Each structure stands twice: as structure tokens, then as C-alpha cells.
Amino acid sequence: MQLYIKQKVFSLKDRFTVFDENETPRYYVEGKFFSIGKKLTVTDEYGQEAAYIEQKVLTFKPRFFVYVNGEQVAEIVKEITFFKPRYTIEGLGWEVRGDFMNHNYEIMGLNSEPIAAIYKKWLSWGDTYCITCEDDRNDVMVLAVVLAIDCVNAQQAQASSSSSSNNN
Known about the structure:
The chain is of the alpha+beta class. It has a single domain (2-161), classed as Beta Barrel (Porin), CATH 2.40.160. The protein is 17% helix and 46% strand. A 12-stranded antiparallel beta barrel has the order 1-2-3-4-5-6-7-8-9-10-11-12. The radius of gyration is 15 Å and the shape is globular. The chain starts with a strand and ends with a helix. The model has no long low-confidence stretch (mean pLDDT 82).
């Protein structure tokens, strides 16, 4: 299944609509505006919560928890490495490989079987992420992983731009 996340360019809080290949809305993602750490709720097209993603604050490594039906099902952790960023997804047995800063990566299963491929369309109004899920049953969890990685990238970009403006 193909999913597309179109992030609104001028939004005071995180709000994304996830479309399928027919441009039918499949999921809605909304973040809390005034909260410590990122908190995102993913709802299906009927308004039912499909997943809840919460950032753990005050940790050495960026860390996000994914909840489905009120139970934690995964923990997404950005590992500290010197050369290339690496993420682990505890609880699912998945690993993520690729170029995260350029939004071109893949999620692999236990035996290196492909779970999903993610890439970013650069020439569109706002950010558009394209996600190809090998199995429709994984689309919510893949979406949670993509959102967590995007949150980490956005926070790092914001931190580096504020530190560079402080140096001027």
C-alpha cells in the first residue's frame, strides 16, 4: 500500500493528513500544541485512535513510545553514533536503514525482509512523504516510526539553526 503524508506548511500545531494512492484520507495525525515533548495522536478515517506517540523527555538519546489501545507496543530510539544516524525499534524487531536527513530510508524486519520504504518529495508545497508498506497490517506502526524520525530530525534542525543564529 502507498501512503502519503502531506504536512501543512503554516500550522501552529502538528497536523498531518495521510492519504492513500487514490488521494483518499486514511489517517489524521495531530499533535498537542502546549506540551513538554512531542505527543501525536493518529486517528483513522472514522476518528478512532489508531496509535498514540509520545516523546520521553530528559533523556540522553531521543526516545519515543508508541501505544496502541493504551498499551505500549514499540519504543523508537535514536542511537548515538559518530558517522551515520541509527534508529532501533524495540518491541517490533525492526531496524531502520538509510539517509534520514534526506528522508530516504527503509524499515527492515528480523530477517532483513522489507517492511516499508520511505522517501520525501522535494518539489511540493509543504513536505510530502511517500511510504510504501509491504503489508497493510503494518501501516500504523510504520507511520509511527516515520513520525518519530521526523520529530527527531525537526528538533535537530531547529537546534542547529538556533545555535548558528546565536553564533552570529
